[in-house]
Amino acid sequence: MAKGKIHSGFIKALGLQKNNGFPKELRQPTDDRRDFTYYTRRRKLRQVLHENREARFILTGHRLGGALAILFAALLMLHEEAWLLEKLEAVYTFGQPRIMKK
């Protein structure tokens, strides 16, 4: 997968650490209670889809939400989340800003 320079604001909005890359699993110190949105949402999505085996999901968002929807799907691909990607029906965005730096 080709990589580029993602604007740091989007990285922060997903709860990722700019200098830590995008590890498949996050190792959080026990004294650090910050919410890492990508990992929290992925964990919840796995849980819901395991409980409802026939369910599929759609990622969607407007403006910032659209940018995050695209990045969420891209991170699923980067992390080779084949089972989740099979359940992904579509990604729809509206008014999404450019997520890559020039």
Automatic annotation (TrEMBL):
<dbReference type="InterPro" id="IPR044819">
    <property type="entry name" value="OBL-like"/>
</dbReference>
<dbReference type="InterPro" id="IPR029058">
    <property type="entry name" value="AB_hydrolase_fold"/>
</dbReference>
<keyword id="KW-0378">Hydrolase</keyword>
<dbReference type="Pfam" id="PF01764">
    <property type="entry name" value="Lipase_3"/>
</dbReference>
<protein>
    <recommendedName>
        <fullName>Fungal lipase-type domain-containing protein</fullName>
    </recommendedName>
</protein>
<dbReference type="GO" id="GO:0004806">
    <property type="term" value="F:triacylglycerol lipase activity"/>
</dbReference>
<feature type="domain" description="Fungal lipase-type">
    <location>
        <begin position="3"/>
        <end position="101"/>
    </location>
</feature>
<dbReference type="GO" id="GO:0006629">
    <property type="term" value="P:lipid metabolic process"/>
</dbReference>
<dbReference type="InterPro" id="IPR002921">
    <property type="entry name" value="Fungal_lipase-type"/>
</dbReference>
